[in-house]
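Regression test attached.
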Amino acid sequence: MLALHRFGMGPRPGSIAAMGTDPRGALIAELDRPLVLTAAASLPTSAKAFRTVADANARRTARVKQAQQQARKQMAAAAPAMSEDQAQAQGQDKDAAEMAAKQAAEAVPDPGRPMYLQEAKLRTEAALVADIGFAERLVWFWSNHFCVSANKIQSMSGAYEREAVRANTLGRFVDLLLAVEGHPAMLFYLDNLESMGANSIAGINRSRGLNENIAREIMELHTLGVRTGYTQDDVISFANVMTGWTLVPPGDNPEHGGEFTFNPRLHEPGGQTVLGKRYEQEDAEQGRAVLRDLAAHPATATHVATKLARHFVADEPPPGLIAQMAKTFRDTEGDLKQVAIAMVSSDDAWRGPRSKLKRPGEWGVGMVRATGITTVDPDRFTGGQALLGEALWRPSAPKGYPDDEASWIDGVGRRLDIANNFAERITGMADPQIIIEDVFASEIAPEVKQAVGRAESRQQALALLFMSADFQRR
Amino acid sequence: MGLDRHLPTRRELLAGSGALFAWSQMPRIARAEGRDPRLLVVILRGALDGLGAVAPVGDPDWISLRGDRALLLDGKPPALPLDSFFALNPAMPNLHRLYKSGKAAIVHATATPYRERSHFDGQDVLESGFTRPGATASGWLNRALLAMESGGSVDPRGSRALGIGSVTPLVVRGSAPVMTWVPQKLLPASQDTQNRLLDLYQHTDPKLATVLQARMKLASLGGAPATGDPMSDDPTLMPPGAARVRAYFTEAAGTAARYLAKPDGPRVGAMGFVGWDTHIAEGAASGQLYNLLGALDGAFAAIESNMGDVWHETVVAVVTEFGRTARINGTQGTDHGTGTVAFLIGGGLAGGRVIADWPGLKPAQLLEDRDLKPTTDLRAVLKGLLRDHLRVEEKVLAETVFPGSIEIKPMGGLVG
């Protein structure tokens, strides 16, 4: 049961059987299964999604312009016959044009929202059906570690997770790093499309220059960690290295646009020194070389091991566990599957009490899993997550959502509203006693069993169960 | 795990009120005698404390039974006098007004045939109309509709029932088609649920207890939130207190009434309100029960006003699975009991009275020396309404609507 809560998505029908007598072995075995979302085959690639939204935006702009022009023409034709009050006529003219523009804009809805919801549905349902959910938890962890925000780039947010994160979650850290930093969604999110070398062709012609955002966040958040010895000069040099990493602009060709490309005209020419090492490459290889070295840096091993242990085990994880995981990271050249195995193989990862408060998304999935339901209405589910402060793929900053109790505990009251509402909707389908006996194998505090047994209604029983510490802690 | 299979079938989910207009061709339940009656059943889930709602202030043992928790005519606030013996909880001025104008009646010391004390089983008996729990998957209201169809007195296409809530109440489930409507508001967890969760946290997780306590404290301060619309659907903008419960009750009951009032709408409906299981800090005169009864009173007002012109053809029956202990327990609440009250309101009612064969409150007069003894079978009341208001035949009532109730005669004279 601890394995399911701490390392998985929480118990669901069949989870106990899947665990067998060897929870560690079962967790490790789950990492051997492919992590692909087969149902996602029909979803657009990030580039296609980006083009679809760009295309809709262009069509909307055109229709708005057209409508405004027409409205003005009609008004101009009608103006002499209308009111003599010039000011009033002008006001009406403006109102009518605005109304026409609004209607024209509404005629072309944003295709980004349905894409976001479809992606959200598939990733949530993958978490619902997994026997244990350890691998899905790792996908969620890395997706948050390398977060982008749908507030800035909604069209690509789901495809980004599939293409860059999920595909490399159980691979090597360096491949994950190269995939996310070279992904158009990340380059867009961290402003690298705007960045150009001061001495690059485009930089000279347009009198524009560097944006340090991606360089700083890669070192501070994605690899080394804050205050690990890199300097402002390192940030600037690395930002120069990353210039030219951009995407193919959409619009020229219906089959292309939105893919990664290296544009030499934006790239700062010449070699750069980052963390004391000279990089003389002339193209995207320069950036790849820096990223490879950052991935192999010992500070990265410690940073990643600490974050993983904090996410899964405790807000203040045992130092021995971190050391073991960091050592595995270094010894295996960042093999993330081996790091995950090292974590669950360590007794330190199992010893502590269930002190972690599940994050809202995890807790929500846990609730649905316990009932055996395997499909979600993504609008409702993501709405609930947003209400609880963990809007899917919409963190407020590149740091992603926090992983400590202090950040989430004040939201527990709001969880009660969600639990109560969910309990009401499923009260005809889920029996709290069966959940306790079959899904939880009765491994639940006697106080919870008693509260559930004495509840005034099945809805109340379910709400109390979902809100119990047994359900929220891991 | 195939849980989805248990979803109620044969019902129409309305995405919004717009779907109703699709029914414009639907014939009404038209009666040969020119009446077009409406019946709404409201289930109070969790077991209403009948003595906390309608107090027998004239009973000499009343004060000794409830002590300083007894509602009194000179209490703070004072209970509302109904007759020389009973007084109404002060949270219910609308019900009091309806009662005074003959449009409300109260049945006291009533109960279903169920004599155990499980909520789930008690609600099953209340809603199924059978004498034992788990006997059937249909409700008495739905079977009453079917009986009316097969009797040929109504057009079967018109026999539409309405269920309010994301789960259709059992009382209206069955083979006669049911349309359902789900309130848009998020009903906050009841005070009772919060109390229980707090108790659970206090025994298992002190940190979570502290957080929940802070939230409950905030809610109890009440008042409108600093920003936003107090009727907002966004729970973050509204304190999770009594105001939200009241808004929810009003919206749900008011919407039910709007549907039932439509010329082409359903003619019977059912809905449930939760939160009545007041084991801890019942608060009849101020607190949990007072707030809930106040919310229910607001729902009555919404029904009356939304029924509009057809209010005179309307009857609303408000029932609960059982009552609560006559005495206050060790946590200033009441535990599961037996006899309780039923509220009947509506323009079609011959009201203005409390119907009770009063059993008395002395220890020997209580059931098992703990509960108000039931002296009126709730089925007699319901059968009376179905016979005289909806014109369901007595034989059908005894055989299929409330099977095994041949001995329980329908109560006459409820409908004016």
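Expected vs. actual: identical. Chain A touches chain B through 42 residues (CB under 8 Å).
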